[in-house]
Amino acid sequence: MYEQKLAQIAALKADQPQNIAIQCFDPAYFATLGPDEQARLMTCLNSGIENPDSEMGCYACQPSDYDDFRPFFAKALARNHRVAEDAKHTNNWDLSSVDGLPDEGVLDMAALGLPPLSMRVRVGRNLADFPLPGSMTRDQRVALETRMMAAFQVLIDHPDYGGAYHSLTPGNLNQITQAQYQELVDAHIMFKDMSNDSYLLAAGIAADWPHGRGCYVSDDRSFIIWVGEEDHLRIMCMERGTVLNRVFDRLKTALDVVNGIDGLTFAMSDDYGVVTSCPTNLGTAMRASVHIQLPNLTADGTDQKAKAIAKPLGLSVRGAGGEHTPIGADGTVDISPSARFCITEAQIIAALYKGIALLKAEEEAAG
Ligand code: ADP
Ligand code: ARG
Q: What is the SS3 assignment for 323-364?
């Protein structure tokens, strides 16, 4: 039944050494699975088969996939995150657990000689009682949005997080216009049209666009929850400033509020921490970033040099509009620690601070 897919995978193994899912797929393990499990695992790999240039090449489609298909995912996780196959993840937001931080754990970029920068910390979360986005039906996407709209009432009534929900779902009570949506995208608040992303399309994650998609935005626009992107929820704090603790601490406090809302139980794995669609995000599901100008390292108009310098520092470089976008005209790039798994939340924000210090030195040396 899977002859064609198995032949495709076998051919890609030879041609695409960077495609982790393809490289970690073991036909002998696949043959041991029953028909339902075989169908589920093949669904996880579809994006990497349809997009041979993938680096991760797979997405989980059910909250239990990482545990149910451990022989596959343990290998893929080990390869992507450079950890042992039996590595276990621990979550910890307490900055006092991290050694070598400045006094009182205040991560103030002004001490590095930097001006106020746009700072953002996001975490992905998925509800335990829905399939992950790659396997949802349109009705389930809309039901999840309805569940979240009820939950958002708690935030609307909250003095620190009051705001409004904006929906892209046709006919939703809170539906916004295309122009309003574009304004939110341009303000870095709302996510891009997923149906333009070939990885998410092949994964089934972008299906039924724009049904069940939207975002909650606080009145001051600095606390945001995406609904229906790559994970059910992406929860984030964003503001301009120099003290990274501002966005980190605010996000933790907000997360505790969201976590306490009736009807919201987040998918967690005992061994792997926070469950996410993409194995690259598993564990913390956290990306902590700043937008920073690196005119010397981007003098050729691309991020190639900045990427080469940032990689050994454990940092990823993205464009000014996020993943798979070009750098800004003024040499602005998005810098974030690459690690998400087998690292704590506290270590990630500390790694951002330390990485910025090192990258700033490289930028000056390149001048
Ligand atoms: P994610 O961060 O969820 O992995 P993206 O990389 O696509 O997704 O980024 C989503 C949006 O967040 C984009 O508009 C991007 O420019 C914006 N963004 C990311 N980091 C920052 C930041 N530090 N300041 C302002 N906007 C940011
Ligand atoms: N699926 C793509 C790949 O394998 C992107 C993975 C990382 N990005 C993400 N948004 N999850 O290369």
A: CCCCCCCCCEEEEEECCCCCCCHHHHHHHHHHHHHHHHHHHH
- Nearest-angstrom CA–CA distance, 258 and 152: 9
Residues 297-308 have pLDDT tens digits of 999 999 999 999
CA-nearest of 349, 154, 346 to 257 is 154
* CB distance 125 to ligand 1 below 6 Å: no
| 240 labelled catalytic | no
Q: Which ligand approaches the C-alpha of residue 287 most closely?
A: 1
Nearest ligand 1 atom to the CA of 230 is: 3
Is 250 designated active site? no
- pLDDT at position 288 is 98
State yes or no: pLDDT of 103 exceeds 90: no
Residue 329 has what pLDDT?
87
Calculate the alpha carbon distances from 195 to 137, 145, 204, 231 in Å. Answer: 16, 18, 10, 15
- Catalogue the long-range contacts made by 330-333 (C-beta closer than 8 Å, 24 or more residues apart): 330/293, 330/295, 331/293, 331/294, 331/295, 331/297, 331/298, 331/299, 332/291, 332/292, 332/293, 333/291, 333/292, 333/293, 333/294, 333/298, 333/303, 333/306
Q: Which amino acid is at 34?
A: G
pLDDT cut 70: percent of the chain above it: 100
Q: State whether the beta carbon of 188 lies less than 6 angstroms from ligand 1.
A: yes
How confident is the model at residue 1, as a pLDDT? Answer: 84
Nearest CA to ligand 2 atom 6: 56
What confidence tens digit (pLDDT) does each residue in 163-190 have? 999 999 999 999 999 999 999 999 999 9
Ligand that lies nearest to the alpha carbon of residue 282, given by its number in the listed order: 2
In order of start, what are the domains of the chain with their CATH numbers? 3-81 (1.10.135.10)
Q: Whats the size of the chain, residue-wise?
A: 367
DSSP state of 283: B
Quote the CA–CA distance of 159 and 293 in Å, as a whole number: 35
How much is the pTM? 0.97
- Give the span between the Cα atoms of 172 and 256, in whole angstroms: 28
Active site residue 44: no
Residue nearest to atom 25 of ligand 1 (CA): 118
Per-residue pLDDT averaged across 329-350, rounded? 96
What is the pLDDT confidence band of residue 367, given thresholds at 50, 70 and 90?
A: confident
